[in-house]
Amino acid sequence: MALSRRLLPLFLRRGAPAVRALSTAAAPAAAVASEEEEESITVKGVRISGRPLYMDMQATTPVDPRVLDAMLPFYLSRYGNPHSRTHLYGWESDAAVEAARASVASLVGADPREIFFTSGATECNNIAVKGVMRFYRDRRRHVITTQTEHKCVLDSCRYLQQEGFEVTYLPVRSDGLVDLAQLEDAIRPDTGLVSVMAVNNEIGVVQPLEEIGRICKEKGVPFHTDAAQALGKIPIDVNRMGIGLMSLSGHKIYGPKGVGALYLRRRPRIRVEPQMSGGGQERGIRSGTVPTPLVVGFGAACEIAAQEMDYDHRRVSALQQRLLDGIRAQVDEVVINGSMEHRYPGNLNLSFAYVEGESLLMGLKEVAVSSGSACTSASLEPSYVLRALGVEEDMAHTSIRFGIGRFTTEEEVDRAIELTVRQVKKLRDMSPLYEMAKAGIDLKSIEWSQH
């Protein structure tokens, strides 16, 4: 508590007023205030009774304690720069980095020499999309991606458009899956890259990677996939899936934030133009000192994921079904966004008809969930991913993404069900639209007028 009381005032305003330590008359009040401190926290003007349940696993995951154990020695005693070639500190750090590289490669069926460490998946996506097209700019001027990609892929494509490249943004079906026939038809002789996300960060849909890879191989086009949400959650084999480039992130698989990896195929070799100038680390692909503790943590997270992926998948699937059944048993007009058949079960994106999403989020103060991607959650616009699925704007505004992970418990799921159901019912009780719909009135047939 001593440490947390020193740190929390930096970003939290505690619920209880400060009491002067030297006032003897204030001693009983101080004890009461201390109890109130333990029970409530005020953040950004919102008072919360204790820390909320965490169900936002697509935004980030907690660090696995075993990962932290692996990292600590490289903060405290083995703190050498892995690029220092003249002494033990550098040698042992370099050996640890290479061991982590092998662990990451093993999880995706790659050669360790095909793994390049970066600061995260956003940087990987930038290197992959911009780097490939700039390297082959004389012969390849066309990129294919989908409308539901992560914002950093879409923005990288828009950046290329400003440089004169052409980009095709493929639509997706109502279940979130790409139409393979459309993809094949979109490939041109000058297409330099196809970029399709493996598991969507907002709706959890798993794209048919093997089929996409086969099409790209037949057409002679490199296939890039953003696998930040897929690594350690679904089996990945870069050779079987025909993947040429792949973006990975540490903090999505119970590893540390600030580290990721780019897979870059060696045979047939795919070349990229580096996006950062410097000392030529990571074989010139990504200059900058490799952060040994973070890389070691990433490697440890990959090792654990390789051992526990099947168990985690079964457990998360059971918890997802428990959450879905619990909500649907008590609330009607609940829609699942995205395919249920081709889906990572730890991501459950639901829309609640006749409920405003932001109001629902504000009412769910005791559950940490989101209405979409953490990278775009500051926007009040409806999710562009859901709009791409054809979800109507009012339903897109009502979506909530529940993230279930390795450390989520049945008790947390049951509590989330209770709080969600209570808040949905409360908001619907205040909604005239819900009352009209229950009375059998077709809301779409009403012509609304302004006064």
What does this structure look like?
With 451 residues, the protein is an alpha/beta fold. It folds into three domains: 2-51, no CATH class; 54-59 and 309-439, Aspartate Aminotransferase, domain 1 (Alpha-Beta Complex), CATH 3.90.1150.10; 65-304, Type I PLP-dependent aspartate aminotransferase-like (Major domain) (Aspartate Aminotransferase, domain 2). It is 39% helix and 13% strand. It has 15 helices and 15 strands. It has helices at residues 2-7, 27-39, 65-71, 73-76, 88-108, 121-135, 151-162, 180-186, 209-219, 292-328, 357-363, 384-388, 393-396, 410-429, 432-438, and strands spanning 13-14, 41-43, 46-48, 53-54, 115-118, 142-146, 166-170, 191-195, 223-226, 245-249, 260-264, 334-336, 347-352, 367-368, 399-403. A seven-stranded mixed beta sheet has the order 5-11-10-9-8-6-7, with helices on both faces. It has a three-stranded antiparallel beta sheet with strand order 1-2-3. Strands 12-13-15 form a three-stranded antiparallel beta sheet. β8 (191-195), α9 (209-219) and β9 (223-226) form a beta-alpha-beta unit. Mean pLDDT is 89; it is low at 1-36 and 373-377.
CATH-defined architecture of the largest domain: 3-Layer(aba) Sandwich
Distance between the termini: 56 Å
CATH homologous superfamily title of the largest domain: Type I PLP-dependent aspartate aminotransferase-like (Major domain)
**Radius of gyration, rounded?**
24 Å
CATH class of the largest domain: Alpha Beta
How many structural domains are formed by the residues? 3
Helical coverage, percent range: 25-40%
Relative strand content: 5-15%
Assign the structural class, choosing from mainly alpha, mainly beta, alpha/beta, alpha+beta, or little secondary structure. Answer: alpha/beta
Mean pLDDT figure: 89
How is the quaternary structure best described? Answer: single chain
Strand order of the largest sheet: 5-11-10-9-8-6-7
CATH topology of the largest domain: Aspartate Aminotransferase, domain 2
Largest sheet, described in full? 7 strands, mixed
Q: Treating each run of at least 4 consecutive H or I residues as one helix, how many helices? A: 15
